[in-house]
Amino acid sequence: MRKLILFNLVTLDGFVEGPNKELDWHNVDKEFNKFANEQLLSASLLLFGRVTYELMSSYWPAQNAITDDPVIANQMNALPKIVFSRTLEIAGWNNTRLIKDTVAEEIIKLKQQPGKNMILLGSTDLASAFRKANLIDEYRIMINPILLGKGNPLFKSEDEKLNLKLLKTRVFTSGNVLLYYEPKATPK
After folding, report:
1. Which among 22, 40, 14, 8 has a CA at the least distance from the CA of 116?
2. In the beta sheet, which residues pair with residue 144?
3. Residue range 83-99, pLDDT digits in tens
4. For the chain, what is the domain count?
5. CA 107 to CA 5: how far, in whole Å?
6. Residue 188 located in a structural domain
7. How far is CA 96 from CA 47, 152, 160, in A?
8. Cβ of 1: how many Cβ atoms within 10 Å?
9. The domain spanning residue 34 has which CATH number?
10. 15 in a domain, yes or no?
């Protein structure tokens, strides 16, 4: 059975982007890129909401991404992808399928299939929906050593409380800290 993993970069104060959608604070280097490649190698499917999909699909197939980071670009462009959107009409990025409805049912079916992990990248609204439906098996949150003060939070204030179990941590020389969590089983 496949696991659904949420991966996101966040600031120390919990934001995934600045107030004007800035991502210029991402703390990436060779060590991060090595981790990103290993994570992509552990996946058989990438999942996106529309906004993140549009950002990724405009960047990774472009020549500058292929030149600057050919290993990650190759993985991002080659892996099968699903974009969940009610408004997107076409998903033109290589190996991408568009799903408009029955999101939870689709994820349950996908989790029952053999294969490597499914990784949800970014996509805070979709992550919130998956969280509410108890579909996320593991949270991988990479804290970047920066405070923005304001921006778009990873988790929404209307999200329900969820107790997590720390699985492991990884400290990067850049100051990034990766936290691996799984939802705690609720006592019956």
Report:
1. 40
2. 11
3. 999 999 999 999 999 99
4. 1
5. 12
6. no
7. 9, 26, 31
8. 8
9. 3.40.430.10
10. yes
pLDDT in tens, 94-116: 999 999 987 888 899 999 999 99
Structure tokens at 88: 């997107």
User: How much is the pTM?
Assistant: 0.93
d(CA 41, CA 13): 30
Domain coverage including residue 86:
4-183
In a domain, 25, yes or no: yes
Please answer whether residues 49 and 123 qualify as being in contact, where contact means their C-beta atoms are separated by less than 8 angstroms: yes
Cα 15 from Cα 143, distance rounded (Å) = 10
The phi, psi pair for 141, rounded to 5°, reads -115, 120
Question: Does 14 fall in a domain?
Answer: yes
Below-70 pLDDT ranges, the chain: 157-159, 186-188
AA identity, residue 152? N
- Token digits for 123? 């996509």
Residues 6+ apart with CB under 8 A from 17: 23, 151, 152
Residue 59 has φ and ψ, to the nearest 5°, of -95, -55
